[in-house]
Amino acid sequence: MSIRHGLLALLERGPRYGSRLRTEFEARTGSTWPLNIGQVYTTLARLERDGLVVQQGADEAGHVLYALTDAGRAELRSWFIRPVERSNLPRDELAIKLAMAVGAPGADVRAVVEAQRRYLSEAMHTYTRLRARSLAEAPAHRDEVARLLVLEHLIFRAEAEIRWLDHCEARLLRLAEAAATEPPPPSPPPA
């Protein structure tokens, strides 16, 4: 997730101060990816250092306002048209957990799968309720549509992970069945 580019996108609407950017970022993403205010100001300092934003005075409350530069606008346009690469995937804790559980003598892999499936089902129900509420209010504003898109992404992602867990469980069952039908290994000859 590029906080850097997310802040540039919010600044395209006009000058903003840090805590307002944080609030707008969280609203736009349905509070799915909360930001630490320190993270916002650290990112703004880097953007300023890189010539992508400039300080543009202060509002009536004394908040320092940041605005996009032409270079910031160009970087934002470039980011929007650049595909998100999936070649350097982050480590997935669930995939690692299952891979390790398969080889661990005391691990109940089916319990790991079932616990994750329950968690995802609950999360999916929450996301689905939020989406239904959002749709009932007939999203008309861009921020509402953006929030809806994020919620739908989370729903589809949870569905995909549940399908993968179903696949894992089926593979493990086939493996267990195959192991049950294999003849036992020969006993070593007596010494």
Q: What would your notes on this structure say?
A:
The protein is mainly α and about 190 residues long. It folds into two domains: about 5-80, Winged helix-like DNA-binding domain superfamily/Winged helix DNA-binding domain (Arc Repressor Mutant, subunit A), CATH 1.10.10; about 95-180. About 65% of the residues lie in helices and about 5% in strands. The chain is built from seven helices and two strands, in the order H-H-H-E-E-H-H-H-H. It has helices at about 5-10, 20-30, 35-50, 70-80, 95-105, 110-135, 140-180, and strands spanning about 55-60, 65-70. The protein starts with a helix and ends in a 10-residue tail after the last helix. The mean pLDDT is about 90.
End-to-end Cα distance, whole Å, is 63 Å
Strand content: 5-15%
Q: Give the oligomeric state of the chains in this entry, treating copies of one chain as homo and distinct chains as hetero.
A: single chain
Strand arrangement within the widest β-sheet reads 1-2
Poorly predicted runs are none
Helix content: 55-70%
Q: SS-based structural class?
A: mainly alpha
| Global mean pLDDT | 88
The H-and-E topology, N to C, reads as HHHEEHHHH
How many distinct helices?
7
Structural domain tally = 2
Annotation, overall tally of beta strands:
2
Mind describing the biggest β-sheet? 2 strands, antiparallel
Query: How does the overall form come out from the CA principal axes?
Result: elongated
Cα-based radius of gyration, to the nearest Å = 24 Å
Write the layout of secondary structure elements.
Layout: H1 3-11, H2 18-28, H3 37-49, E1 53-58, E2 64-68, H4 70-81, H5 93-103, H6 109-136, H7 142-181
Antiparallel strand pairs: 1-2
Pfam families: PadR (PF03551), Vir_act_alpha_C (PF10400)
InterPro entries: Tscrpt_reg_PadR_C, Tscrpt_reg_PadR_N, WH-like_DNA-bd_sf, WH_DNA-bd_sf
Domain Transcription regulator PadR N-terminal: 7-77
